[in-house]
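Long-time lurker, first post. I've been practising inverse folding by hand and with some scripts of my own, and I keep getting stuck on stretches where the structure tokens seem ambiguous. Below is the full token string for one chain I'm working on. Before anyone asks, I'm not after the true native sequence, just a reasonable design that respects the backbone. If someone could post their per-position residues I'd love to compare against what I wrote down in my notebook.
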């Protein structure tokens, strides 16, 4: 009995060491750049704010999928926003807090610069 206990204990330790290896798990897939951009809180909030402005001006926009800050014009920021489906708008925010939403063609006629290009 004195020999049996250490022998059983040794076999138990040996068995647990053999089966203790952790299985290899596949790594998680890498997140795409577009998906990572959407995780940035400022980007998501900006997309929603621009979508709200576009829709409040009477335009259809189910989701803003791309934004671009064109620059500052006459003291206000000009942002371009592309909606899901491809329609693009320029959103001009004035220093007094008002905003104007223009289709990109109208924005280009007004500013002389096409959407998606820096002033």
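-- Answer (accepted) --
I ran through it position by position. Result:
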């Amino acid at each position: 009995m004195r020999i049996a206990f250490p022998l059983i204990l040794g076999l138990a330790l040996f068995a647990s060491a053999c089966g203790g290896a952790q299985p290899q798990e596949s790594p998680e897939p890498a997140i795409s750049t577009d998906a990572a951009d959407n995780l940035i809180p400022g980007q998501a909030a900006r997309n929603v704010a621009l979508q709200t402005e576009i829709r409040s001006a009477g335009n259809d926009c189910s989701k803003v999928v791309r934004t671009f800050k064109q620059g500052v014009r006459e003291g206000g920021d000009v942002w371009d926003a592309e909606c899901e489906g491809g329609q693009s708008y320029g959103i001009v925010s004035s220093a007094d807090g008002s905003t104007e939403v223009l289709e990109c063609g109208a924005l280009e006629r007004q500013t002389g610069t096409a959407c998606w290009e820096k002033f």
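A couple of notes from the structure itself: The two ends are 90 Å apart (CA to CA). The helical segments are 4-18, 33-39, 41-56, 104-111. Happy to go over any region you disagree with.
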